[in-house]
Amino acid sequence: MTSTPHERRAIGAMYIGLALTVLATAAPYADRATSHLLADHIRAGYPMYTDARVESAVTAYLVLLSVVGALGVLAWLWTIRAVKARRWARTGSIVMFALGIGAGLTGLLTRDTSGATGLPSALGWAGMAPCLAGLAAVALLWRRPRSVSRTRKS
Q1: Which of 68, 86, 99, 114 could be disulfide-bonded to 45 (CB atoms 3.0-4.6 Å)?
Q2: What is the pTM of this model?
């Protein structure tokens, strides 16, 4: 099947979203190996935690964020396939976009028992980055194709 220019651009945006999801999923691991932003954030919220308990909390976040990232990758791949097959592409893209926004906002805004957000803002915003590509993809899929019969006014 020949796809429309909007569908091709939407698929391109989806591949960008897929790459951003992989990067956002890898970001906490890079942080753990370098800057320890997540560990410092947990330590600031829970100053009585031992180093072992902070490390346990970091590990729990890594598992949680890895699962969310893996689900995000699967969602991108499913949506790309749906667009290529022209099955449920528009509806599916809206549903996946809503789920992605929900997951991103949850990571960005959810407060833990210390009163601070569970994730440091840098990691929370990294989780929101794929949503920008999702917004572009949804907009492209829902954009009406230009009519062939229209003529340009001079």
Answers
A1: 114
A2: 0.88
